[in-house]
Specification:
The chain is of the alpha+beta class and about 170 residues long. It has 3 helices and 7 strands. The strands form 3 sheets. Strands 1-2-3 form a 3-stranded antiparallel β-sheet, covered by helices on one side.
Length: about 170
Amino acid sequence: SDVCSSDLRLRSIYDQVLERRLGHVHREAFDRDGPHGRYQMQVLQPEYSFPELLETKYFRYGRSIASRLLATAEPELKGYSHLIYKPPLCGRDTTWHQDEAYWLNAAFQDNEPRAVTIWLTLDEASLESGCMSFVPGSHDRGVTHDFEGDSASLVVRDPDLRQVEVCPMSP
């Protein structure tokens, strides 16, 4: 199917990004078997090295959705992608956070305060593997974030987890 070929194209491009190690490695390999070893990597703006990413359905549809949600013409949109590679049994859970905190934090004032985050998975994201979770309506409440240790990671201070919803996804 058309979607299946798009999935394979995107996966092929991202495999090249990982093979070239274009990102920041968070945890160096403790098992070097396999094509990428075992480490976490984040790559900001892989579309600069691989502009063909911008022609994939995922990027085109994402821009269209963001344009409608932000009531902004597509040519006026600013943005970038962010690839996060998390192999099984490597690293830790992602702490509770809101992406918007990065855009509104004084340390990141050059960023756009109105933004949309669109997340997609290239692998099965199950409850067991650590799928996305959220607290409905938390974006409308005053949530306080703190920097985690010496990192640039923002975490929610005292998250209210009584209404957590999990979002398992297929690729």
